[in-house]
Design brief:
The protein is an alpha/beta fold. It is built from four helices and nine strands, in the order H-E-E-H-E-E-E-E-H-E-E-E-H.
Length: 199
């Protein structure tokens, strides 16, 4: 780990905003403004050689002004190291596309856009990839409703996919375990108390 930290620090210098080692993995935080230049350096620097981009994903932290951390997970097969790079952004400020560094970033960035709504400027084919083109919202955001906004199903009569408002077969219920009408005589977790009273 020390060898990896030394190599990354030597390649990027004071551009690293923060380093964290957790679960035997190094994470570095970089600036959104110099991201593509820094990722190119990590790929090309002889002491790093992160030739493979394994994934791009995001973390939604809605309590922060820049609510998203975009996470790049890279592999250096030459040095046998993995590295995570985090970059903060908000829902309105795009991040420059990493497809110029790794062409394989294309689908990862589309997935991140689809699930979180994070925009990538300069992307060659920026459209949804996991949800339907007419889908409303971004399902992995913390403020996305658990039931979604609409229900999608295939209609045999119309021979096509149809969108309908979400309909739940049963309303959300608030159970009152103390009520005799619920049919529960013992509150969940109180089984021991009943056994002790009988003894």
């Amino acid at each position: 780990m020390e060898e990896l930290l030394e190599a990354v620090s030597g390649a990027l210098g004071d551009r690293i905003l923060e380093t964290v080692v957790h679960a035997d993995q190094l994470t570095v935080r970089l600036s959104r403004d110099t991201l593509i230049e820094d990722l190119t350096t990590l790929r090309n620097d002889s002491s790093c050689r992160f030739a493979i981009l394994l994934d791009i994903t995001a973390i939604d932290l809605p309590q922060r002004p820049e609510r998203f951390d975009v996470v790049y997970i890279m592999l250096s097969p030459f040095m046998n190291h993995r590295l995570r790079v985090k970059v903060a952004t908000d829902e309105f400020t795009p991040i420059e596309s990493a497809t110029t560094v790794w062409p394989g970033a294309n689908w990862f960035e589309r997935e991140t856009w689809d699930m979180y709504g994070i925009m990538f400027s300069g992307h060659p084919d920026f459209r949804r990839i996991l949800t339907d083109y007419g889908f409303s919202g971004h399902p992995l955001r913390k403020d996305f409703p658990l039931t979604g906004y609409s229900e999608v199903r295939y209609s045999e009569e119309q021979k096509r996919v149809v969108y309908e408002p979400v309909s739940l077969t049963q309303e959300f219920r608030s159970f009152d375990y103390a009520s005799p009408w619920e049919g529960v005589s013992t509150l969940p977790g109180d089984e021991k108390a009943e056994d002790e009273a009988a003894a």
